[in-house]
Write a structure and sequence with these properties.
alpha/beta, Arc Repressor Mutant, subunit A, D-Maltodextrin-Binding Protein, domain 2, 3 domains, eight-stranded mixed beta sheet, two-stranded antiparallel sheet, 12 strands
Length: about 325
């Protein structure tokens, strides 16, 4: 490599994305190219530098010592370029605020309430981006994200929006067919719709001391919106976040099957870069969101049932409820 000769920008992007995901395929999906193209870019960069950046083991890739040393300055350089570009192209007083939210939360909770934000802040043009992917604030042009997790994200600020309480629900037609369950144990005999990992029902029963729940039969879905659709069409009972099905319960489209609710360890968080905390648009959205969330129903109270939480140690629910993989990254 000639002195002061910079590597190709596309090769650096391929290196950074592959190093972040430790996956050529995921990097290719992010960059909208083929895995073969990513591999070629990385090979070109390694040839340019004269060192190997990755070790390839079976179908996986791992950073070499040189790759680990090279990654932080490359990542910081991209972040600085992105921040500088955003400052020039988007003045601080520009009216567009881009918020990334997971699809189910956006459609079931956020969008129905957005008129209140528009009325309170008519000078801010809110752009909602529906995504379950990792949020990269430097690259994606996102000002804030709403994600489901534990709220601990390195280098980012986060505020809890909603603590997710899980309740069993079903369509009225199925309740009419099978009868309202007299006790949670009755649901072991119901047809059930499952999360992708087929664990949520087992953990819910276990939290209440019900052991004979049987195998997790029935359809499963990796998206909470699809799971909700299956429940609304009478395919079985399901465990869903009470706050996001409150409207369906209130309108009679769903019935809460038990007054036992299960408070998850995970919650929805508003997440954004630490240096955006005092940004006027972010502060306005944060204030409105937290105020609205404080008044949101935490359980399916709209169904008319009193609530009690499951006894025993709290169990962590399946990550299907918006996905732990949705955690933001800087």
């Amino acid at each position: 490599m000639k002195k002061h000769q910079l590597p190709p920008l596309n090769a650096l992007r391929a290196f950074e994305a592959t190093a972040r995901h430790l996956s050529v395929k995921n990097a290719a999906d992010e960059l909208c190219v083929t895995p073969g193209a990513v591999s070629q870019l990385i090979k070109a960069l390694e040839l340019h530098l004269g060192v190997a950046l990755f070790r390839r083991v079976n179908r996986g890739v791992f950073l070499t010592d040189a790759g680990r040393a090279y990654l932080p300055p490359v990542r910081n350089a991209f972040r600085q370029i992105s921040d500088a570009t955003r400052r020039i192209a988007m003045p601080e007083d520009a009216g567009i605020l881009t918020v990334s939210a997971t699809p189910f939360f956006a459609s079931a909770w956020l969008v129905p309430r957005l008129k209140g934000f528009q009325d309170a802040h008519p000078d801010i043009d809110l752009q909602v981006v529906s995504s379950s992917a990792l949020a990269n604030f430097s690259r994606d042009g996102v000002d804030a994200a709403i994600r489901h997790g534990l709220g601990r994200y390195a280098g980012l600020s986060s505020q809890r929006v909603l603590t997710v309480e899980i309740v069993p629900v079903a369509a009225p037609a199925l309740v009419k067919q099978l009868g309202m369950p007299a006790a949670p144990a009755d649901l072991t005999r119901w047809p059930r719709v499952n999360d992708a990992e087929r664990k949520a029902w087992a953990l819910w029963f276990e939290a209440q001391g019900i052991e004979a729940a049987g195998a997790a039969r029935g359809p499963s879905f990796d998206d909470s919106g699809l799971l909700l659709k299956a429940v609304l069409t009478g395919q079985g009972a399901a465990l869903l976040p009470a706050a996001v099905v409150a409207e369906d319960l209130a309108q009679g489209r769903l019935v809460q099957l038990s007054d036992v609710s299960w408070l998850e360890d995970f919650a929805y968080y508003l997440v954004y870069p630490e240096d955006s905390h005092d940004h006027p648009k972010v502060a306005a959205f944060r204030g409105w969101l937290l105020e609205v969330a404080q008044g949101a129903p935490a359980t399916g109270a709209a169904a008319g049932a009193g609530k009690r939480r499951a006894s025993g140690p709290r169990k962590r629910a399946s990550p299907t409820f918006e996905g732990l993989a949705s955690s933001p990254s800087s």
